[in-house]
Amino acid sequence: MKGGRRQTDGYLDLRKLAEYASLSVSSLRGYINRGSLPAFKLDGKILVRKDEFDAWVENFRITTRQDINGIVDEVMDALKG
To answer: Taking the domains of the chain in order of start, what are their residue ranges?
Structure first.
């Protein structure tokens, strides 16, 4: 454990993050471009901290049927504008 960080922490490029998250690279780029998903750009390469991604994705946890409807509404609103 170097510097207090767990071994599973680290940075993932978009290709590796897409594989880890089962999402497309273009979806991830969209979240980053909208400022929703925190990321870093280093020498033209986009990197995302794995622990920050895990925390970010927790915001999308589905707990009830009502939550599903709210998520659909949010996604539709985001797509519209």
So the answer is: 11-80
What would the DSSP string read from start to end of the chain?
Answer: --TT--TT--EEEHHHHHHHHT--HHHHHHHHHTT-S--EEETTEEEEEHHHHHHHHGGG---SHHHHHHHHHHHHHHHH-
What CATH code is assigned to 11-80?
A: 1.10.1660
> pTM score, two decimals?
0.67
Per-residue pLDDT reduced to its tens digit, 14-67: 999 999 999 999 999 999 999 999 999 999 999 999 999 999 999 888 776 666
